[in-house]
């Protein structure tokens, strides 16, 4: 039983913040390629076989990820006078950073703003076949809680996601796990009204 540890050296994190990087990981196929090489380094041919796409298509997307600093050649192998390149991730975890938004009219200066791919939108599209086959596990809840409590809860969720990512790579099915915590426009109740004079609280 092999734990999810790639067969190459990899940094724990890599920062993703530039528009080019964000565009690179926004593509579902490129996101899949990044997930595949988290298991082990792979050649373009192996990746093309895994995703069922032409080698030329996969080679293009691999090149985009290399240029964006999220994939790199981790080793080569000589096969019939040709060097096969094995690609791996530059970081186990992609940390979405901040980017400088251009100054807008009426604003005093440019602002650093968080930029990220909406993973829930990707998961919503990806999970349609599972929903139709009745094999989708999902739930949605709303809770009115302080911002600090939301941050603490999210750290616990991240630990669970790390545990999921470290599970042994076995079986024939790749499962997706999508989680999100966000401020919503779900209505909230107003503060309770004070009791009427005389202490009559009703029945």
UniProtKB/TrEMBL annotation:
Domain of life according to the entry: Bacteria
Region (Disordered): 182-203
Gene3D superfamilies the record matches: Winged helix-like DNA-binding domain superfamily/Winged helix DNA-binding domain
SUPFAM superfamilies according to UniProt: Winged helix' DNA-binding domain
GO molecular function: DNA binding; DNA-binding transcription factor activity
Annotated ranges, domain HTH arsR-type: 20-99
Pfam families, alphabetized: HTH_20
Compositionally biased spans, kind Pro residues: 188-203
SMART domains linked to this entry: HTH_ARSR
Keywords on record: DNA-binding
InterPro entries the record matches: ArsR-like_HTH (IPR011991), HTH_ArsR_DNA-bd_dom (IPR001845), WH-like_DNA-bd_sf (IPR036388), WH_DNA-bd_sf (IPR036390)
Name listed for the protein in its UniProt record: DNA-binding transcriptional ArsR family regulator
Organism: Terracoccus luteus
């Amino acid at each position: 039983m092999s734990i999810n540890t790639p067969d190459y050296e990899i940094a724990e994190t890599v920062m993703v913040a530039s528009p080019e990087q964000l565009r690179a990981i926004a593509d579902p196929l490129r996101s899949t390629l990044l997930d595949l090489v988290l298991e082990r380094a792979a050649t373009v041919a192996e990746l093309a076989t895994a995703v069922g796409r032409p080698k030329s298509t996969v080679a293009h997307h691999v090149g985009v990820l290399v240029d964006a600093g999220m994939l790199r050649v981790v080793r080569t192998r000589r096969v019939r006078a040709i060097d096969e390149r094995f690609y791996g991730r530059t970081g186990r975890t992609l940390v979405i950073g901040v980017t400088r938004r251009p100054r807008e009219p009426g604003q005093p200066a440019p602002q650093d703003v968080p930029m990220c791919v909406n993973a829930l939108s990707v998961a919503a599209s990806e999970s349609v076949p599972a929903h139709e086959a009745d094999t989708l596990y999902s739930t949605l809840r709303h809770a009115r809680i302080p911002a600090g409590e939301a941050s603490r809860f999210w750290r616990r969720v991240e630990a669970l996601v790390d545990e999921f990512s470290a599970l042994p790579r076995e079986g024939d099915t790749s499962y997706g796990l999508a989680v999100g915590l966000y401020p919503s426009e779900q209505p909230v109740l107003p503060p309770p009204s004070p009791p009427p004079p005389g202490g009559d609280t009703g029945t």
